[in-house]
Amino acid sequence: MHPRLSADRALPPLAQPGVPGHPTDSAHLSVIGYLIVRSPSGMLRMKRHPLAHHWMGEAMPENYWTTSVSVGKSESEIRDLVYRFGASKYAFIEDWDEGSVIINFMYREYPVEFRLRIDHLVSTRLETQPWNTKRRCSEEEYIRRTNEQAKKTGMRILLNHIKASLIAVEYGLINFEDVFLSNFVTRSGQTLGEIVVPNLKSVISKPGLLLPSGK
Question: What is the pLDDT of residue 13?
Fold first, then answer.
């Protein structure tokens, strides 16, 4: 167990192996992401796990969209999380005029970068929840509010993604290099994902394009 994370009591207690409903417990996954909990009176009951939608492949729940957590707080939590895991040289760059944020840090000798764009969140929300006269605001104001909420939502989703990935690394389910491979930054400034993904079919059919000779 990574010493920096194991000492952190702020990590969700439900994200621990052996806790009913943990995704590594297939017996509890069979009840579709529900926890079996004991009430103060001693009665057993089933309770939906707050992360069940991640495990079961469901759509993003409404509570993500309605989060009131500020961009600043989510960013601060991401910074503290990666530092506790041993990262260094953390940087947060926001350019909301372009609808994006960039998070950089060093892990060992690897430069890592996450780029978040809110365009898709905004367009999807405006398509599924379009403005109408019942909104009690102008269409322009509704679009502005949607953009502001998308910033909060996007940062919260990014935090949960990084947190879930680091927990998987902490418990040895996957290597850090495997889970964040596409986020490693090359000398050109591009991430490996930006280089490989556009040519993924070629790389899969001709792995020698990336692998050392003879591999």
Answer: 37
